[in-house]
Write a structure and sequence with these properties.
The complex is a heterodimer of chains A (192) and B (218). Chain A has 192 residues and is α+β, with helices and mostly antiparallel strands. Chain A has helices at 2-28, 49-52, 61-84, 106-119, 151-169; strands at 91-95, 101-105, 123-132, 137-145, 177-183. In chain B, strand 4 (169-176), helix 5 and strand 5 (206-212) form a beta-alpha-beta unit. The chains are: A alpha+beta (192), B alpha+beta (218).
Chain lengths: 192, 218
Amino acid sequence: MLRTVNRVLIAIAGLVLLVLGGAVLAVGLGVRPPSWWIHDGRHDVLLSDAERTHWRDAGWWWPTVIAALAVLVLIALWWLTAVLRRRRLAELLVDTGDGEGALLRGRALENVLAGEAGQLEGVAHARARLTGGRTAPEARLQLELEPHVDPGTALYHLAAESLSHARNSAGLAAFPAEVRMKAVKHRAERVS
Amino acid sequence: MSEPQGSEGTTQRLPVIEKAFGDDLDQGPPPAAADEGAREGRFWSARRVPAAIVAVLVLAVAGVFLYDIAAVRANRPAMRWRRELARQLAERPLDDIWVLVGAGVAAALGLWLIVLAVTPGLRGVLPMRRPQADVRAGLHRDAAALVLRDRAMEVAGVQSVRVRMRRRRAGVFALSHFRELDDVQADLDATLGEAVRGMGLARPPALTVHVRRPGRKR
């Protein structure tokens, strides 16, 4: 979600810069602009006084400018907070099956998940974080692998054991996970 | 692994999203050997850093303009920079060198932002095959390189190894100080082929192995 927003807004900003910069560059280098374009030749100025003050006496001009700037400020503010805030699931709802529910602390499940993943064969260190909603949590894990283990095998065990345990114990229908695997840095040495 | 195994020949396989599974942990041997098929997509970066930078800049510029325009509306004098800006805008012709430089920089920056917005990024993460339908995994490229190096070091006769890991190709350069080079090469090919398969990557990199004697000097 945030990823899409980021990319769309970045693309819009890029497009604006590209169009403005490219247009000025093209006209400045001698391309003939179409007649309706604000610049009519390479000796024209960027923004003449007449152009700048053209609408100034109209009653709607300043309210429009101020409103547009205010909207821009609000969007930027919202965007910045959304980017800076690290979303983390505080608690999730466990369906106990008897019509009631229990709340499980997100941190607790994170710790269990990381602990159990860290116990797996060949995993030196594991970190887990929960995102998503409280009835549909998602996990993001980061594993550091020891030199001797095959990443594919480690991933298989992680999915078959740690993730399944977590999913079953929290009574979740689905528990999507994203896993990143790194390796413990070490020197090259002969094992055998 | 919950897909049917028999349809290797078909080119397109629709991504089946299985909602109602729950017992697929019983099945499947440890990572099945090279079964191609389901195309695993790249990881897409959230582009947090460029987003934060763009947001801060937009916020600052729009905020300052908003403040100053509101101040002028409230019958206070405009700040000096805005009058200066208006003057410069009205005086500089388009073929002024600084205008051209500024426009070029803006256009390049805009292009760069668009590239950032449409490319996946995270080139250092290689997607892995999914062990279950809802588990996505990625292996960092330097981790993959370390695995290859460690496996290569286990081959008898290998003195040192350098691994060059790209996204589609892996180059292994080994120095061998005893045994026949051909034997070492054959062993390395076998061992590393096994190692690449053991990584469980969605798109296993093409492997090239070079073995040399350690030269005196080069």
